[in-house]
Amino acid sequence: MRAESLRALLLGCVLLGLSCQRACGGQSPAVPLATVDGSPITEAQLQLALEETLGREAKSASPAARRKVLESLVATRAIAIVAQKELSAAELAEVEQQAAAYRDDRLVRLYLEKHEPPAPVTDAMVEAYYREHLDQFGGHAVRSYELLASEHEPKGAPRAALIAAFGKAEAEPDWSKLAKSLSAPGAGVRFESGQLPASSLDPEVTKVIEGLEPARASKPFFVRERIFVARLKSTHDKSARPLAEVAPMIQRTLRARQLKAAVERAGDKALQEAEIVHRSK
């Protein structure tokens, strides 16, 4: 078994033990349901496993369901005991550190429930977040564009001629043909069409296109010693994913935000009661 899997298994057993301590008030039942190499499995641990497995139906679990979950706990404990013998001292210390972090997290959540419960996430908050972040859910304006660009910056008369031709390009319906007619040896003209957003475009070119009205072309402009002219063909809004589909995702985000705010408020109060010592490195 890989060391990462063993550490995860051991951590699960340690966390289960911590949860049992809280459920039992730190006391072990007189008669365990089973023992594995002298390590007891308690009724409280079984109940916790049933809740994690069956949720609300845990209290009405059938004897067969209880027996199946208990057998799973026994097997898990047996593997964890073997794993503990195989892991190095450093790996076991890592498991203990992870268990301690979990313990701190659980204590913080219990403290918040009692003293500083996070504000609930309402439907109005979910709808407001959705409207303000439509781009996160696929909603954005799609701009179809086409552009002409010189392969290099021409000099002298060819440069002036190309600028003049680009200045009249708005009246031309087929820019693909126009690019071919304007190309000359050593002074090629490239045609391109696509949709914004487009990562392949230079940001300065994108900025020009975004400032255009539909069916309008820009004036000739220069970017990195090349001559460009761009035309916005059309624009339309791409619909975002429905609110009902993304609401659970938004709720998780907002709950995390509310929890963070509650922790910050509670932290300000707790710091006033705690003795803090900072040691310089």
What does this molecule look like?
- The chain is α+β, with helices and mostly antiparallel strands.
- It folds into 3 domains: 3-115, no CATH class; 116-139 and 239-276, no CATH class; 140-238, Chitinase A, domain 3.
- Helices cover 55% and strands 15% of the residues.
- The chain is built from 9 helices and 6 strands, in the order H-E-E-H-H-H-H-E-H-H-E-H-E-E-H.
- The strands form 2 sheets. The protein has a 4-stranded antiparallel β-sheet. The chain has a two-stranded antiparallel ribbon with strand order 1-2.
- Helix 1 packs across helix 3 (63-86).
- The longest helix has 31 residues, at 243-273.
- The model is unreliable at 18-28 (pLDDT under 50).
State the domain count: 3
Radius of gyration: 33 Å
Question: What is the β-strand count?
Answer: 6
Low-confidence stretches: 18-28
Mean pLDDT: 84
Major sheet: 4 strands, antiparallel
- Range of strand content: 5-15%
Give the % helix. 40-55%
| First and last CA, distance | 39 Å
Count of separate DSSP helical elements: 9
Quick overview:
By secondary structure, this protein is an alpha+beta fold. The chain contains nine helices and six strands; from the N terminus they run αββααααβααβαββα.
Task: Set out the fold topology.
Layout: H1 3-24, E1 34-36, E2 39-41, H2 43-54, H3 63-86, H4 89-115, H5 123-132, E3 140-150, H6 156-167, H7 175-182, E4 189-196, H8 203-210, E5 221-223, E6 226-238, H9 243-273
Antiparallel strand pairs: 1-2, 3-4, 3-6, 5-6
Helix pairs in contact: 1-2, 1-3, 1-4, 2-3, 5-9
